[in-house]
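ARCHIVE CARD
CATEGORY: sequence design from structure
SOURCE FIELD: tokenized fold
FIELD CONTENT:
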């Protein structure tokens, strides 16, 4: 019976199975009967051998199969009776390929959604995916790598429990029944930020001045920043019933990056308790408030003077002064003492400098004063910080007292029974003279005759005297307090012979400029005396200004300073002569003082002066007039005894014009010459870029303290920036105070070039500097940023840019590349020199491939044979030629 070839089962599986499992690296296929299989590939090997059941057993072994070997295999057996074909489908299974196109489709602060494209999985479905998640700083082999599993039918996953504003790396592995695929390409992602979740810690506050409190604190834990920490909000308000209903006032403070942050809160009330809080903030907003801390500003001098200052005279040499404290809110501390200053105001005292006394209470008795004298009294309160503002002067007069003795007395004969007695008023009356008392005594009588005269009487003719009898005379003056001491005693003996006698007493006469003065020369004598006037020993010429009077006096009209001098009236007849001397002092306003500058600081100017002429009367006060340029004139009144003064609280870097005027009882004198003084300081100086800018991924910190204020404190900063590919500037909201140490620009794009313009202004002017920077990439890598401060220049008030050379040539960002370039250039020159020297010389052409050629091969890129036997070698982009051997 003829047999048609057929197939039988082999190794436990039937010919009808379509899937042949893999075991190791080869596939076994069993064929039966007389079969021949063509060998199409070196991967296939056919074996034939006998079978116990008869016939032929054939095996085809295919080694190193791949999924690409999957196919339908037809096996046909043929004999004389026919043929039979059996089809078998070969499916080669393998692990999946790596997932592709991994991307973020939704990004949050604490979760993200990632998607990917499902990879091919040869002949078996993907059962699930494994997502590997780690932070940027750890390796994939670390135990901290998180693994998440998702179903094989899903190509997305939500990654949760992440930290805000952190950079993570994700990769995905596909898994099927065979095994795991290779990992996908890692994907770097950054979670969105949140406001900080913790407050600054270890906050401390301490008063450093009467207007300032210094705060120190540490940043919260970095894991709670939830983004780039841009700065802090420092809040303050008064800790009092007044401030309880108020909200905090906040200052914005940048991040210094040190271990401890510091900020000084200014413009506070003096000697006042404050409460302070802090908040950290990032690009998403502020975090929670810190624990409240308290501090009190330091004491300062009282801002207001004591009130209700009164002065009461107790005696002619003692006064009592009392007062009440300044208003409590203007005291600025605890009052420790009061300073009581009293200054005489009358010319007879010589107007010395005032005297001061320290008083503990609110009243004081001042003694040892001049009698019947006006005093200017001021009171100032003092704290531990010093003496405050003085009260407005209160004029206080001591009581009257008995007068001094009349200044002089004289007696002249007027006939056989009469004399004329004349006297001068006392130098210090110690009050208002109410009367004069003339005493006469005829020795040996002991009791004098007393005659009371009105206060305007300064001479008296005494009659009814006995001829040729000696008489003594003296005079006293009296105030309402009583009678003062007596003048010296003068004597006279009346006689019929009356020589020339002048009973005007003379002395010092003071007159204001422009007034008329009469110098009296009352006289007696028989015969009538001859009179003459001399000035400083020169005869007085009578003219329209010098006019003699009927009684012998001299009228000087419209007195001028040049009229000052000694005037003498001479009287003579045949019985004798007499004279009287006047010293005329014409008082005028003081002459201009000599004013000059002694130097300046950034906030003060010191001037000194020398008096030339007080104008014949003591200087009562000084007036310093000044103004800034430009600005309005102002003046300050100075004590008369000063010879130098420091004008403070001025603006730095500014010119000031000053002049000084002195005053006496006549009025203000001529002003001194105007002097010009400039306070120290100039426009701010910009820093190099590496000192100003600290770059991060999405933020830039500006260290504003890097600006040099040039002894003139910076008032404020203006900051603007823009991406380099845009035209419009973005302004930082508001001006930044000059006291701000740092400022952070947030919400910037990673790996992006920006232009920055910073303007600093102080009273001396403003300076604008321009800079370029590039933010870091998400992985924190630096991109090329140019040469640092070379791209930072200085702009003047007109906006023109000028490079600050001193900054460029001291900036490492400039120096280091220059040095490296120089070293590279020298190396190239040396290499070319060695190349030329060590090439073959005058040898044979056949030696050109010898030692010199091998050496050149280390430097040269190619050799070319040129016509004429000339060999050209190109080395390091430079061409070196060597002539062929001759």
């Amino acid at each position: 019976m003829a047999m048609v070839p057929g197939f039988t089962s082999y190794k436990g599986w039937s010919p009808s199975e379509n899937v042949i499992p893999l075991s190791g690296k080869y596939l076994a296929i069993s064929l039966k009967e007389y079969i021949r299989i063509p060998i199409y590939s070196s991967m296939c090997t056919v074996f034939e051998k006998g079978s116990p059941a008869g016939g032929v057993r054939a095996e085809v072994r295919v080694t190193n199969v791949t999924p690409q070997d999957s196919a339908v295999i037809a096996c046909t057996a043929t004999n004389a009776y026919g043929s039979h074909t059996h089809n078998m489908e070969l499916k080669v299974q393998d692990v999946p390929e790596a997932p592709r196109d991994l991307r973020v489709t939704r990004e949050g602060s604490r979760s993200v959604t990632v998607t990917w494209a499902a990879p091919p999985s040869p002949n078996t479905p993907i059962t699930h995916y494994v997502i590997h998640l780690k932070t940027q700083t750890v390796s994939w082999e670390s135990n901290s790598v998180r693994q998440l599993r998702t179903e094989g039918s899903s190509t997305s996953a939500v990654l949760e429990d992440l930290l805000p504003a952190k950079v993570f790396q994700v990769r995905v592995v596909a898994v099927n029944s065979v095994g795991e695929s290779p990992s996908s390409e890692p994907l770097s992602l950054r979670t969105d930020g949140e406001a900080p979740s913790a407050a600054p810690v270890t906050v401390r506050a301490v008063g450093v001045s009467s207007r300032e409190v210094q705060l120190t604190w540490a940043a919260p834990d970095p894991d709670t920043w939830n983004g780039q920490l841009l700065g802090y909000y420092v809040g303050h308000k008064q800790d009092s019933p007044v401030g309880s209903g108020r909200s905090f006032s906040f200052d914005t403070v940048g991040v210094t990056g040190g271990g401890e942050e510091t900020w000084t809160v200014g413009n506070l009330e003096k000697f006042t308790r404050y409460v302070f809080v802090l908040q950290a903030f990032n690009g998403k907003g502020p975090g929670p408030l810190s624990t409240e801390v308290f501090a009190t500003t330091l004491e300062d001098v009282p801002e207001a003077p004591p009130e209700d200052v009164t002065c009461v005279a107790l005696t002619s040499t003692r006064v009592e002064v009392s007062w009440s404290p300044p208003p409590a809110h203007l005291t600025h501390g605890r009052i420790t003492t009061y300073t009581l200053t009293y200054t005489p105001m009358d010319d007879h005292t010589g107007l010395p400098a005032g005297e001061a006394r320290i008083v503990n209470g609110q009243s004081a008795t001042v003694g040892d004063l001049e009698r019947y004298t006006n005093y200017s009294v001021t009171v100032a309160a003092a704290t531990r910080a010093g003496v405050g503002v003085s009260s407005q002067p209160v004029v206080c007069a001591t009581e009257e007292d008995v007068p001094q003795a009349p200044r002089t007395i004289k007696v002249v004969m007027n006939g056989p029974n009469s004399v004329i007695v004349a006297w001068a008023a006392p130098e210090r009356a110690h009050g208002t003279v109410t009367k004069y008392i003339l005493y006469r005594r005829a020795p040996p009588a002991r009791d004098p005759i007393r005659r009371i005269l009105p206060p305007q009487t300064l001479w008296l003719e005494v009659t009814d005297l006995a001829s040729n009898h000696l008489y003594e005379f003296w005079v006293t003056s009296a105030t309402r307090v009583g009678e003062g001491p007596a003048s010296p005693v003068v004597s006279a003996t009346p006689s019929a012979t009356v020589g020339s006698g002048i009973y005007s007493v003379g002395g010092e006469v003071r007159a204001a400029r422009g007034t008329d003065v009469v110098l009296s020369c009352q006289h007696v004598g028989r015969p009538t005396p001859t009179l003459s006037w001399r000035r400083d020993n020169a005869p007085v010429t009578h003219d329209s200004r010098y006019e003699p009077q009927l009684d012998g006096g001299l009228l000087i009209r419209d007195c001028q300073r040049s009229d000052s001098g000694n005037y003498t009236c001479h009287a003579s007849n045949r019985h004798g002569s007499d004279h009287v001397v006047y010293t005329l002092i014409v008082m005028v306003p003081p002459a201009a003082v000599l004013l000059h500058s002694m130097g300046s600081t950034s906030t003060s100017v010191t001037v000194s002066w020398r008096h030339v002429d007080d104008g014949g009367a003591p200087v009562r006060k000084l007036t310093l007039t000044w103004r800034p340029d430009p600005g309005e004139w102002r003046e300050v009144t100075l004590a008369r005894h000063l010879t130098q003064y420091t004008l403070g609280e001025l603006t730095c870097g500014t010119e000031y014009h000053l002049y000084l005027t002195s005053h006496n009882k006549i009025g203000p004198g001529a002003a001194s010459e105007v002097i010009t003084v400039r306070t120290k300081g100039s426009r701010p100086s910009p820093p190099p870029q590496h000192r100003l800018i600290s770059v991060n991924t999405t933020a830039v910190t500006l260290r504003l303290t890097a600006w040099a204020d040039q002894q003139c404190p910076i008032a404020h900063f203006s900051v603007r920036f823009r991406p380099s590919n845009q035209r419009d500037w973005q302004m930082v909201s508001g001006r930044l105070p000059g006291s701000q140490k740092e400022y952070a620009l947030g919400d910037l794009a990673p790996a992006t070039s920006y232009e920055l313009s910073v303007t600093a202004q102080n009273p001396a002017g403003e300076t604008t500097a321009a800079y370029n920077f590039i933010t870091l990439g998400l992985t924190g890598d630096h991109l090329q940023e140019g040469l640092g401060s070379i791209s930072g220049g200085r702009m003047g008030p007109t906006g023109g840019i000028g490079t600050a050379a001193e900054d460029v040539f001291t900036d490492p960002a400039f120096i280091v590349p220059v040095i490296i370039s120089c070293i590279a250039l020298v190396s190239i020159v040396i290499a070319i020199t060695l190349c030329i020297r060590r090439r073959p010389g005058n040898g044979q052409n056949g030696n050109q491939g010898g030692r010199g050629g091998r050496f050149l091969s280390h430097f040269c890129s190619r050799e070319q044979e040129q016509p004429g036997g000339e060999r050209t070698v190109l080395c390091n982009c430079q061409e070196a030629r060597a002539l062929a051997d001759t």
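CARD ANNOTATION: Helices lie at 241-244, 689-692, 805-808, 812-837, 851-857. The longest strand covers residues 576-587.
SHELF: design records, drawer C
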